Amino acid sequence: MKEIVYDVQKGHTLYAVFLELKEWNTIEIGKLGTFSFAPGVYVYVGSAKKNMEKRLARHLQIDKKKRWYLDYLRPYCQITKIISYETSIGECGLASKFKKKGKVCVPRFGASDCKCGGHLIFLGEM
Question: Are 55 and 64 in contact (CB under 8 A)?
Fold first, then answer.
C-alpha cells in the first residue's frame, strides 16, 4: 500500500481527494443510483468551512455509516493524495479545473447543493 500524500494547509476550506480504483466495479451510490466505475484515477472535490481535518480523517476511514456519496465509493478505492486549496475559487470552480482534465462520471455526486454537474471527476487510467 502506497503512502498517502497529505498536503493540507491551515486556513484552506477546499480539498481534493485523489482515489485509485484497481478494477471495474458496479457500485450503488446512495439515492443517485447504481453506476459502473472504470479502473483509474478519480478526484473528489469537497469543502469544509470548519473541522476540515476531522472531515478528511473521516474520508480516510473505510468502515463507517454512509453519510456522503464518497462514503459509498470509498471501500472500493485507495486514497493516494489529499490536497487543500484556498477558498476564493470556490468548490465548483475547483471541480471545474479538474473537469478540464477529465470528466464527471456520476451526475450530482458531491454536488447536491450546487448547480454544477458533479464533484467526482474521472481523470483516466493509472
Answer: no
